[in-house]
Amino acid sequence: QVQLGESGGGLVQAGGSLRLSCAASGRIFSTYAMGWFRQAPGKERVFVAAISWSGGSTAYADSVKGRFTISRDNAKNTLYLQMNVLEPEDTAIYYCALKRGAFDSGPYHYTSTVNYDYWGQGTQVTVSS
Asked: 7 to each of 39, 59, 61, 80, how far by Cα in Å?
């Protein structure tokens, strides 16, 4: 059993920065990849960023490239999302997710919610204009 807990969400002005954290706990007996997704009111949950076990491979949604940075600290079992130059359009509930093992090749393996095994409860990010 694995539990994920997000933190770091809050209210920030447009152009500001925020750093989200996601701590994994429980029985994790394998390597795992992780990702961030977000869901705005009235919209579906969409991909934001993903990272491999080693941190050597990352991927981002076009809407956040150049502004967001995903990273991880495996010694702490923690995933991060550094969010810079925030825009009102970034307002959403942000979820971290864990996939046991590694992703297969191809973008659909890390951009689709169905490929992840565990999810956090989400943290609210609100960006004011």
From this structure: 16, 21, 21, 10
β pairing state of 92-100 and 118-119: antiparallel
CB atoms closer than 10 angstroms to residue 25: 11
Q: How would you classify the pairing of strands 123-128 and 92-100?
A: antiparallel
In this predicted model, what pLDDT tens digit does every residue of 13-44 receive, in sequence order?
999 999 999 999 998 878 999 999 999 999 99
What are 68's strand-pairing partners? 83
CB atoms within 10 A of CB 72: 21
Query: Phi, psi at residue 86, to the nearest 5°?
Result: -65, 145
